[in-house]
Design brief:
- Four copies of one chain form a homotetramer.
- By secondary structure, the first copy, chain A, is an alpha+beta fold.
- The first copy, chain A, is built from 15 helices and 27 strands.
- The first copy, chain A, folds into two domains: 233 residues, 4-Layer Sandwich (Glutamine Phosphoribosylpyrophosphate, subunit 1, domain 1); 171 residues, Rossmann fold.
- In chain A, the strands form eight sheets. In chain A, strands 5-4-6-3-12-11-13 form a seven-stranded antiparallel β-sheet. A six-stranded antiparallel β-sheet of chain A has the order 7-8-9-10-14-15, with helices on one face.
């Protein structure tokens, strides 16, 4: 069986942390925040909170936030502190062992940790720990980080944490509980977003601002790259564990992952995506009658394109409200039907038109092919596929689940060839230079999935056929 | 506990019927068609098919199509004929007794029937049947129709069916199986839509064309008001059981219920909704900076408004993919959070703007109030609420679940008063004359929920406070 | 997939009715009573109660009492009156349509009815109703009875009920609610048990006394054959709707169906079964070392046998607590494993012994064969199978689900042949004359399944191969 | 909410291991074996098997064997090797983290381990590991053992395992997979049972022989105290890791835990329990009319008592088949009803009799009190409670979940006082000397829960009020 979204990139995780001076119903608050981050991970959900200000209670399971944590809406669990996590599992099916947060007992006491990102040196670190006799029950970096904290010979938890963080390379946005204290940590390059905001005596930390907004925390800032924030009954403090000379923000957060109402890396996602669409319009060489997004991933870019091009924006593909993640088809020949169940063309609108079809990116091209077939069936005269990102060619070591290089259509075909394969009259990617311009910088982001230029050392990369 | 959509109108049902000359996997086909009609009813789903061309097999349960009928995707049930139903239950919670189709044994043999609509003379008919000694296990009109067919003294099933249909008043779009034959029937006024199309030897009948399109049936026509279509191994035939002098198409199908990619009553829904939005723009008296729909019900009208007004269309409210029907909040004080979980403002876009907010209709006003609050919180300078339908004031006897007159905000307040209540800077409904113009006719539709002019006699109507 | 108990006889139903002068939590009480009758039906469970002394509320579903009705243990539903039902479905799988109670609206008002038994003239009655135009949604006799009450032209409900009951032939033990009144009815021959008891102002009616005992109603009497009991706020009354010249108590209630702690037909089940076992001992012609029951159906008879024979009673087959009805094996070759999972021999006890193995009856012989194999595997020297009932040869029209005559092993084989088939060293049934003696009468029971002498006219009986 | 069996002792676990030279459907075999051990743990179930002879696949969850592992009955997973576990969770609710087997990656490779028992020096060992920097995700001894193996500096897995085992004190019966090899290990005192048997090229290891018998392995032996058995493609071998000077078999396995059809510690459980009952009869000082067991825990002892005393054995309390572990009552005042739902007196038998009531042990006395009440209500003239074990007074550190000393009724009351509390006319425990005699030894078992004489050093024991 396989899922509706199999032709999209997957994200690893979203994290949340809450500290409240007054006792509040922390699990319920975590629920709302995690629900807002559901798009960052649909395979498992979990929370840890500090019951009666003492014992750390954990609950996690495979499933969506509403399934796993729904029971917390009906009960009161007054508490000061909690963290939460949603996870998208990647290789080889769901494994409950990899669900987060993870809670451990060790010589530093009891620690709960939730992690978004991927360490690029996890192989090295894990080998070292294994050599020393550590056991691993999961494949998650979270367990690795906890091992390192426990192994540290530093005299205090904070020193052990700092020592550990300084040895980690790659992406990590972390929320953590230790000794009635909530910690938020972000890697020195700021690969993944992490925001913090305070209101009325409670502090909320989350991967995206939408999770703060739902809790009515409207004032916030980024946790800085290389920063550790610490909040407890004595107040909050901030330290830089690693000087942040440069940043490597994941540009795909802005292109596709983050919710359009979120801010990431200091800029509103919606604005950025409209600019990407507009940039596509600026390099247009074909004529179209209407601009149609692949909903919802292409919506905002399509608005930007239409505005810039002076063409009508039309919602020419209707998205079903009922074709969610839980929707599974047992047979492979049902794939086209699955796409049809999710997206349906508005025939009266499409008929006889030249369509500018906007999506955010192209992975394997399979869904695009089906969609363009649907539009032709509905009478489209021409279909011009435009992607608001450059050609996807390289693996990610920092938290995005990209198919193998072999599976990425852009590694084997020119845009012209892809156009023929998917049945488009023309096909254009957003040039990487145009993307630099939209972002206003070519140095503050990681573009490795497009150009193979990794900001930190990474493991050996398979060649184009592997 | 209560549902996310509690401030929207409810629809009663959607129906499907399939006949195939070759044996095909009818239950799987019914699944796809019903999935496309899921928006017409989320409380129960059911199918009946003719196993091995003989015995009628029924399966129905409370739940969504994917839950109730998902098992049919994995198995083969070769068959010639089937009908299906999705239902929205109305008064007093879910009752499995009311799920459809209903299958009965009677003196006419075995009959399976699925029904969309509501009979306006059901009280009279039911009383008559009760007096004669009929028993009722449900409150559905479907059971009533079956009683009447069974009671008829006409010498054949077809005559009994015609006799029965001629006594029914109000709305009914029906699919029915009897004696290896599929029937499709539509009331003489054509209150509810019903389409029929044929391709490659199979015929599909459904409430909306989107259910035909998903099965790749692209050529279709309306089942005519007053028409009975009959399909079996001998071919298909059509009869008019009642001359159709006038029609009373439910205008709310075009305003809100039907899917935007469907055609109903011979016109594309998407086009019609854009025209409604444009008509709102033509009577505009305020200035706005951007046009924002309440997604997804206001999307198409907002596109029409923006185009007509020459203002930017912006998706200023992000709709969560994860806030579906199954999402339930246990406490009443969580209502606002529930709306926040479903819809979130794009702050960077909203801030400082004058918003033209477009929705399809106003029922109680509770959700609008919360949404406008969200927009203000996000920094909107002004919010002007525009509804692409007239003021809703009267009950429906033909298949729409409208709250009591007392609950309808327009029965007690002028638009200006409502604007104050919901916190809008101004509020306008689409005038009914403008609606006539958009439709191109004032005589072919039922507008009773707006103007109280019922096209057929109806039971006594409670006064404005009941 | 198939069930553990596929080689046992099935029962149709159990019924309950409760009336309390004071408002009590009727659904909870019904739960306990139905739980005690769970052995009479495991496929569906349902209740109807009179909420706030007014509206009849029904809840029923496929499943065990604890699954379907468990939610009623946690909530308060103060009420005066209620009925309940457990059902064992028979032909062709579970059908929710056949679940009981059934509630209808008709010209006599609202009626809820629960029924245990089977009408022997249901074909005739149903044909008559069908001819008059009645529709049937289920195959249950309950729906038929309700049709007849509704159809009756008698001026009152009570007269209509009496008229209806007088036309019914066969077995019916009924609880019913109409107009705030609880009724209990039993057919004139008293085929199925029905008990009534009163304590502290509340009256409990149930198929077996164990359902009264759990509610601490220790004083009770049988509802008499042909009796209607009526209980409401004005008190209780009793009428005989049909003179009861003779009775036809189902002897299988005493042999197998009823719980050993129940009393049915005025005699304790436990005592009766011990006597059946003792009667088997009296005709014994072989020597044994120990007496071993097939648990739990053979337990009580084995105790009687051992006592009479002066042999040790030993629990030589351990019954797993975890092999319940919900336990299903997907493959046919797992049948033997399924028996092994339920019953396991005590090797140290069995080894080298001559076993007198006691069960209540023999249907197809498949399970016996597996069990005897298990005993031999465990080292039994001899196995002598003894059944505490005569040879089962004829169908039942009064509420027991007996396999076809073709499937009944005794229709095609002598006891000696069966012994060889199942691998026993010898095999004896309880002679019918011995059964008469145990019962102390040969006239007050129905023995038709043994001797084919039906106490009332029945439909044509298929020959031995059908 | 609380469970039916809350007044019984809890067991920690059952383990299974299977090795087959030919590829067979290992998960299905594990299912049957674990199902037979279900009485040893109902909270979680899990398996690990070696898919395609390579990768270790784990599946475990909270729930019964049939729920958690039922899916394995329908699918083929050809494999050579597997282990399984059922667990009874003890302190503070179910924790999925404690479910077994546990699989880890470490410097010795991939290891899967399932464990039954409790280490008496786990505090010391854990502290040592924590000091060295180990992290603990669960409270299970299993994780501790795996840490120790990983930490060991011995040059091979086998040496590391042996080193680890030599440091463990207390009870452990282990099955383990490493490098395509199945291991079975038992602690040097043989606290918990562990059996091994081979047939047709496959070897089955399990806590009790009933799990071997269901797989038709009828020849078996105990894994010896202090023995490591190792089985792989090269054959099987056995080593003694610790000389076994004395044994400390848990006497409660023979009194209550093991299934009556099992053999443990080289003796059949059924025989032993009958002897315990007979020993009770030998010290009897009161007269009774019938011997009635509390089913099923008192069944076998009651048979022994009745035989010895020459009194009739009667099943005077009917046990419901439907009151299983999954059966939960929400309110505390439903406790008595819960007992009534599980056990019901046979009134006709009990009335006027002097009852010798036999159970295996007395923990808090709450259930006994209710049962004796039921018997009196049913008319018992006298009730004499007899327990086939001595007075329970001390905690267990070797794998049995005994309530606190404060809760154990025998710590605060003489038998005479307890008789008054539970409403018995008299009450007798089996004297410990009589138990010695039944066992034929006073040195080979652990009787610490009765006499406080622990066979190995244990942590400080709370006083009688803690």
């Amino acid at each position: 069986m396989w899922m509706v979204k199999s032709d999209r990139l997957g994200h690893y995780c979203g994290v949340v942390g809450i500290y409240s001076a007054e006792k509040v119903n922390i699990p319920e608050w975590l629920y709302y925040a995690l629900f807002s981050l559901q798009h960052r991970g649909q395979e498992s959900a979990g929370i840890v909170y500090n019951k009666n200000n003492e014992k750390l209670v954990m609950y996690k399971d495979l499933g969506m936030v509403s399934q796993v944590l729904g029971k917390y809406l009906a009960a009161e669990h007054p508490s000061h502190i909690g963290i939460g996590h949603v996870r998208y599992s990647t290789h080889g099916g769901n494994r409950l062992e990899n669900a987060q947060p993870i809670v451990v007992n060790c010589n530093k006491g009891r620690i709960a940790l939730a992690h978004n990102g991927n360490l690029s040196n996890n192989d090295v670190l894990k080998q070292e720990l294994v050599d020393e006799g550590s056991i691993f029950q999961s494949t998650s970096d979270t367990e690795l980080i906890l091992h390192m904290i426990a192994r540290s010979r530093k005299p205090s938890f904070d020193l052990a944490l700092t020592e550990t963080l300084n040895r980690l390379e790659g992406a990590f946005s972390i929320t953590l509980i230790h000794n009635q204290t909530l910690y938020a940590v972000r890697d020195r390059q700021g690969f993944r977003p992490l925001y913090i905001g305070t209101k009325d005596g409670h502090t909320v930390i989350a991967s995206e601002t939408c999770a703060l907004e739902i809790l009515k925390v409207h004032e916030y800032r980024e946790v800085q790259p290389g920063e550790i924030v610490k909040i407890n009954a004595s107040g909050s403090s901030s330290n830089i564990f690693a000087a942040s000379e440069s940043t490597s923000h994941c540009v795909f957060e802005q292109i596709y992952f983050a919710r359009p109402d979120s801010e990431v890396f200091g800029t509103p996602v919606y604005d950025m995506r409209k600019k990407m669409g507009a940039a596509l319009a600026q390099i247009e060489t074909h004529e179209g009658d209407i601009v149609v997004p692949v909903p919802d991933s292409g919506n905002t870019a399509a608005l930007g394109y239409a505005e810039e091009a002076g063409l009508p924006f039309e919602m020419g593909l209707t998205r079903s409200h009922y074709a969610g993640r839980s929707f599974i088809m047992p047979r492979i020949d049902q794939r086209e039907l699955m796409v049809r169940m999710k997206l349906a063309p508005v025939k009266s609108l499409i008929k006889g038109k030249r369509i500018i079809l906007i999506d955010d990116s192209l992975v394997r091209g399979t869904t695009s092919k089906i969609l363009i077939g649907l539009l032709r069936e509905a009478g489209a005269r021409e279909v011009h596929l435009r992607l608001s990102s450059p050609e996807l060619k390289w693996p990610c070591f920092f938290g995005i689940d990209i198919p193998t290089r072999k599976e990425l259509i852009s590694n084997h075909h020119t845009p012209e060839q892809i156009a023929r394969i998917v049945g488009a009259d023309s096909l254009k990617f957003l040039p990487i230079d145009a993307l630099f311009e939209v972002l206003g910088t070519r140095t503050r982001h990681c573009f490795a999935c497009f150009n193979g230029e990794y900001p930190v050392p990474v493991p050996p990369i398979p060649d184009i056929d592997g």
